[in-house]
Amino acid sequence: MSDDWAQARLQHRSHQEQAIAAAALTLLSERGAGALSMAGIAEAASVSRPTLYRYYPDIDAVLTGVADLIASHDDRLEEAVSEEADPVARLDLLLGTFIASVDHSGATASLRASLPPPAREVLARHESRIHRLLAHTLAAGVDSGVFRPDLSPVLDAPLILGLALAADPEHPDRARDLAHRLVDPTPQEETS
């Protein structure tokens, strides 16, 4: 078998695994983890059940695939953040990406409750990486004087991520604006 053929097979396998995981994630958001079945996932992914079993032998494997899919964009996000020199622009990039990726239907909570240990580990690494990226961004802003000097990047990063997590999908800029007010080094005037 040629290297090109082997590479094409690997790419096809990866594409199929991601398509199946994406279909399962959609089902999770629509129906919750309790409604997941291999037959339902196969139907949603437009693959036969034998094809599904070729890629994922059981629901736990599918859920781990969903966790892998969620974390699959971390490298690109980290690269994009590291290429941005301005801490304010980095903060906007991180918050915008995080807010856009947040599932406001509750599927994430349902997913977390039903995850097998390997998938929980994948999501924990993903969340830790996002937290670390935000903490580094906050530290860069404090060091450059762009953000409040009394910020504690490691302690405040989860609070800012919490704002993004709670963002109204109809008004995502509101959470971003509130995060900016929290890190702004100039005192805010009281409004009555």
Domain unit count: 2
Rg from C-alpha positions? 20 Å
Q: What portion of the residues fall into strands of 2 or more residues?
A: under 5%
Head-to-tail CA distance between termini: 73 Å
Low-confidence stretches: none
CATH topology assignment of the largest domain: Tetracycline Repressor, domain 2
Q: Could you state the oligomeric state of the chains shown?
A: single chain
- Helix-strand topology string: HHHHHHHHHH
**SS elements, strand count:** 0
What does the average pLDDT come to? 86
CATH architectural designation of the largest domain: Orthogonal Bundle
Main sheet: strands, sense, barrel: none
Structural class: mainly alpha
CATH top level of the largest domain is Mainly Alpha
Notable features of this structure?
single chain, Tetracycline Repressor, domain 2, 192 residues, mainly alpha, Arc Repressor Mutant, subunit A
General description of the model:
- By secondary structure, the protein is mostly helical.
- It folds into 2 domains: 3-59, Arc Repressor Mutant, subunit A, CATH 1.10.10; 73-183, Orthogonal Bundle (Tetracycline Repressor, domain 2), CATH 1.10.357.
- The protein has helices at residues 3-31, 38-45, 49-55, 59-71, 74-83, 87-101, 107-114, 117-143, 153-165, 172-183.
- Helix 8 (117-143) packs across helix 9 (153-165).
- The termini are far apart.
